[in-house]
Design a protein that fits this description.
Shape: globular
Number of domains: 2
Structural class: alpha+beta
Largest sheet: 4 strands, antiparallel
Number of helices: 5
Order of helices and strands: HHEEEEHEHHEEE
Radius of gyration: 23 Å
Length: 209
């Protein structure tokens, strides 16, 4: 009888342990999904990857600018390329590379998503508004130093922050010569990126909508 009770207790403990591990794994997955990605391209084959997959054989427009970003001596190259059969069905590719050609940041998007309600205006007006956005994409007003103000807190910088980014974010904040570049996400989002000396690439330092 004692052996039976002991065996039952052992089986119950193992089952409980297994449930705990499964629950912890599910929480980790949820946290990962909730993080706002800074400059990591979508996973190949994922929904985001398919939605923003770009046929780079059909270049419609290209905008570029050079600006101090990753260091104070050599300017980095900011490039926005628009691909597709027409502007209204096109995809955009934003890239930041240093003077050596190393990729520091990449962001892909669907062009029409830049408009708040495209169906309410004509195709001509859609084209005019999109061209206006692209024309001012690299305006000097979109760059600012220091990258993060003294009053800005890590918790308030993002709607969904990743605790793992805190240490690197604080290092960018401490660098008063760091430069932030802000670009559109959709029709109202605004992503701020700055160069991380720790990561050797750009990282998201702010997000607002």
């Amino acid at each position: 009888m004692k052996n039976t009770i002991a065996s039952f207790i052992l089986l119950f403990a193992l089952a409980s342990c297994g449930d705990s591990k499964q629950h912890a794994q599910k929480i980790d997955t949820i946290k990962t999904d909730a993080v706002v990605s800074s400059n990591v391209p979508p996973e190949p084959g994922s929904e985001d990857d398919i939605a923003t997959r770009i046929d780079t054989t059909k270049l419609l427009k290209e905008y570029s600018a050079k600006h101090i970003f990753s260091n104070l001596t050599d300017k980095d190259v900011f490039t926005l390329r628009v691909y597709g059969d027409s502007l209204l069905t096109s995809k955009g590719l934003l890239e930041v590379k240093n003077s050596k050609g190393d990729l520091l940041y990449q962001y892909r998007f669907t062009t029409i998503d830049l408009l708040i309600d495209p169906d309410s205006i004509s195709a001509s007006e859609q084209t005019t508004q999109i061209n206006g956005i692209f024309k001012h994409y690299f305006d000097e007003d979109n760059f600012e130093s220091p990258a993060i103000s003294d009053k800005q807190t890590f918790e308030d910088a993002f709607p969904n922050f990743n605790e793992a980014d805190r240490a690197d974010w604080l290092k960018v904040k401490a660098d008063k010569q760091a430069v932030v570049f802000r670009h559109r996400e959709g029709y109202e989002g605004l992503i701020g990126i700055a160069y991380s000396k720790v990561r050797k690439k750009a990282m998201m330092v702010s997000y607002s909508d």
